[in-house]
Specification:
Number of helices: 9
Largest sheet: 7 strands, mixed
Distance between the termini: 22 Å
Number of strands: 7
Strand order of the largest sheet: 3-2-1-4-5-7-6
Oligomer: single chain
Helix content: 25-40%
Bound molecules: S-adenosylmethionine
Number of domains: 1
CATH topology: Rossmann fold
CATH class: Alpha Beta
Length: 222
């Protein structure tokens, strides 16, 4: 079983504002997810750690041609997703861990956006990747967005990120968040992410996106 990083209270309530402030090009990344998945045959998608549902909402008019299952252990995040997506009966939103989902349901694609960097690399990251892999069809597409990288480039990039933040964020807040990223998040190198993905039963991933410290990866189930 993998660790759960619970989002509740202010952290859940302020999530939309937080991503717009702290994650440059967050909305852009969300907007390209449907394009990344447009060659999937059966339109059956698992959105692991769907949070407030932003990646699902981006399917827009195409949403009705997909069956989407969004799964998140944080009820306050999931309730926001439910509110945004209530018009779509083909979007199932489940308050659960991935390992609690039935194993006989197979998805043709999955996303794991901004989740993995919360889990320690002591078996937790690997468990989550395996729990997703088990529920995918062979060759299924898997898209990840995560903070990845070696320590020194990460520290350098965080200095740049501080310069990119809006004026409304004061210096103390900037420093607090940067410290939290460096001391509390479980950031691994790109090589280690590749190794974990291969061990979980995925192909060598392709790194196709970077905005500041946030890196996008795509791979397939073997
Ligand atoms: C930063 S939010 C990302 C939400 C959404 N994917 C996005 O990109 O906006 C992280 C989400 O991961 C969920 N989460 C935490 N631990 C998890 C785990 N072990 N498995 C799946 N989701 C998890 C949290 O509840 C939270 O909603």
């Amino acid at each position: 079983m993998s660790k759960i990083e619970i989002f509740e209270g202010d952290r859940a309530g302020n999530y939309e504002n937080f991503v717009d402030t702290w994650i440059p090009n967050y909305r852009y990344f969300m907007s390209i997810v449907p394009q990344l998945l447009n060659d999937v045959d059966e339109k059956n998608l698992l959105v692991a750690g769907c949070g407030t549902g932003n990646e699902i909402l981006e399917f827009g008019e195409e949403l009705s041609s997909w069956n989407i299952t969004g799964v998140d252990p944080s009820i306050e995040m999931l309730n926001q997703a439910k509110e945004k997506l209530k018009a779509y009966p083909n979007v199932k939103l489940i308050n659960s861990r991935i390992d609690q989902l039935p194993e006989d349901v197979y998805f043709s694609a999955a996303t794991l956006l901004l989740v993995l960097h919360f889990l320690p690399d002591n078996g937790n990251k690997l468990s989550l990747l395996k729990d997703i892999q088990k529920r995918l069809k062979p060759n299924a597409t898997f898209v990840i967005l995560d903070i990845t990288g070696e320590r020194q480039p990460l520290e350098n990039n965080l200095k740049i990120l501080k310069k990119l933040l809006p004026d409304s964020v004061d210096e103390a807040q900037k420093q607090m968040r940067v410290n939290r990223i460096l001391t509390e998040l479980e950031i691994i190198s790109e090589n280690r992410l590749s190794e974990l993905l291969r061990e979980a039963g995925f192909e060598e991933p392709t790194r196709f996106f970077q905005s500041s410290i946030y890196v996008g990866w795509i791979t397939r189930k073997k």
